[in-house]
Amino acid sequence: MNILLIGSGAREHAMARAIKRSSQNHELVCIGTNNNPGIMSLSSTLTVRKVTDSSAIVNYAEEHNVDLAIIGPEAPLETGVSDALWQADIPTIGPKKELAQIETSKAFARKLLTKYHIPACPQFRVFTQMKGVKKFLQELGENYVVKADGLMGGKGVKVSGEHLQSHKEALEYCKKLLVKDGQFVLEEKLIGEEFSLMSFCDGKNLAHMPPVQDHKRAYVGDEGPNTGGMGSYSDANHLLPFLTREDVNQAQQFNEATIEALKKEFGMGYKGILYGGFIVTTNGVKLIEYNARLGDPEGMNVLAILESDFVTICWAIVDGTLTQEHARFSNLATVCKYAVPEGYPDSPVKGEKIDISKVADKAQLYYASVESRGDELFEAGSRTVAFVGIAETLPKAEAKAEEEISRVRGPLFHREDIGSAELIRKRVEHMKALRK
Ligand code: AMP
Ligand code: GLY
Q1: Does 135 map to a domain?
Q2: Which of 170, 233, 284, 354 would give a disulfide with 335, using CB separation of 3.0 to 4.6 Å?
Q3: Mean pLDDT value across residues 148-163
Q4: Is residue 229 in contact with ligand 1, taking CB distance under 6 Å?
Q5: What CATH number did the domain enclosing 53 receive?
Q6: Per-residue pLDDT tens digits for 352-366
Q7: Of 132, 167, 188, which residue is a domain's last?
């Protein structure tokens, strides 16, 4: 079978590995935005071009006799690459454009959940003018969040006490968003611990993945600017140290209800991955946002312990025959750490050479924003390489990830604290104090 993979980051490198682990032999072709050496070594071709150009991608897929396409990032979902591929009779993993609005419009997501009585939202309102904004801010008091509606790579959300210090600052940001997008979401700030719960979906049935916790802030101790995610961990028992089984069940039910709501709303099934960004609060589990794809880095955590066949899961999604048994994960803990360019995320160095030769276990090293030229590797300006430590326990997985990511040489940095006993203890105590 010929499989087309769209995207060329570390998440897609993990997907390429999962495809190649399949019991059947598949030919892999890839379209991405950079010459990812990891994906290049696994595929017969990696073509560098825009991943959002539907007709060019369909042409490419037809030229390569592609039987199945898999979309990694959100940008092609927004431009309707999935619609165009299905139109050309190429089964595709990744929702069509209308369904992908669950990620591409925060206003749409909040309104959909409200319409279908899914009790996962904080207090919120969508505004298309400034009338009533001041009053709603006063109702929310000190705990408010202002969100740009569309895809902003994590940079469109401003939280009170962090990015916004007063109602005056919040109002100014709201005005800016109105001029830019014509609408924005204003909502209650939720207090608790965040986690990601991703599910494979065939339009009707879901197969859930273990929960993962990502780390958005750039520096140790959750300091510094927000990033795409500096690293993440999952636990051997498929819970997280601060979560109960009921919390996870609740998040799974929200994903199930949302897939059903999308089906009712558009009369077509969501075929791909639904990623709930949740937060557990004293009022139970709430939704921060939905994404329409695998998380990056979270996708690396879960695919690293996926025991069953990734390609078989993809076909079950296409055929509408997905069951939880399709997605079996081993009972191992994982810790993923990214090495990122000095200056990331605001002014990352670019074009500098890196050296990975000292990394002992290359099988769990994932390439992201890397350019290969000859035998040499260069930083391409964003998160560079990631390592996933896998072990029976979190401390062992953390030690492995820390040891290996430290062996990557070049003008890079990583967060030493991700998955550490100290940071996890802080999370658990935070949750304990809140639940009291
Ligand atoms: P998003 O792009 O929606 O994932 O938001 C980025 C980050 O902003 C999240 O990971 C949260 O840390 C924070 N955030 C977003 N919405 C809320 C909310 N309602 N309450 C508290 N924090 C939030
Ligand atoms: N881990 C954050 C994201 O994939 O959006």
Answers
A1: yes
A2: 233
A3: 90
A4: no
A5: 3.40.50.20
A6: 999 999 999 999 999
A7: 188
For residue range 77-130, list pLDDT tens digits in order: 999 999 999 999 999 999 999 999 999 999 999 999 999 999 999 999 999 999
What whole-number distance in Å separates Cα of residue 343 and Cα of residue 86? 41
In a domain, 150, yes or no: yes
Closest ligand, as measured to the CA of 149: 1
Ligand 2 centre to CA of 298 (Å) is: 7
Q: Which of 105, 137, 145 is the pocket-test mutation for ligand 1 (most atoms within 8 Å of CB)?
A: 145
pLDDT above 90: residue 435:
no
Q: How many residues does the chain have?
A: 436
Q: Is 296 in the pocket of ligand 2 (CB under 6 A)?
A: yes
Residue ID of nearest Cα to ligand 1 atom 19 = 189
3-state SS class at 305 = coil
| Ligand 2 pocket, residue 211 CB under 6 Å | no
Same-domain pairing of 91 and 36: yes
In the chain, what percentage of residues exceed pLDDT 70? 100
Distance CA 395, CA 413 (A): 21
Instruction: Provide the CATH number for the domain around residue 139.
Output: 3.30.1490.20
- Is 189 a pocket residue for ligand 1 (Cβ < 6 Å)? yes
Q: How far is the CA of 93 from the centre of ligand 2 (A)?
A: 18
Ligand 1 centre from 346 Cα, in Å? 19
Which residues lie below 8 Å from residue 128, measured CB to CB, with a gap of 6+?
A: 178, 182, 183
The rounded Å distance from CA 220 to ligand 1 centre is 19
Q: What percent of the chain lies above the pLDDT cut of 90?
A: 96
Reported as type and span, the H/E element at residue 145 is strand 144-148
Task: Report pLDDT digits (tens) over 163-189.
Answer: 999 999 999 999 999 999 899 999 999
How much distance in Å is there from the Cα of 23 to the middle of ligand 2?
29
Tens digit of each residue's pLDDT (9 = 90 or more) over 387-404: 999 999 999 999 999 999
* pLDDT surpasses 90 at 295: yes
Q: How far lies 278's CA from each of 126, 140, 256, in Å?
A: 20, 20, 14
For residue 229, the ligand 2 atom closest to its alpha carbon is 1
Scanning 7-146, the segments in alpha helix (DSSP H) are 10-20, 37-42, 54-63, 75-78, 81-87, 97-104, 106-115, 133-140
> Is 82 in the same domain as 147?
no
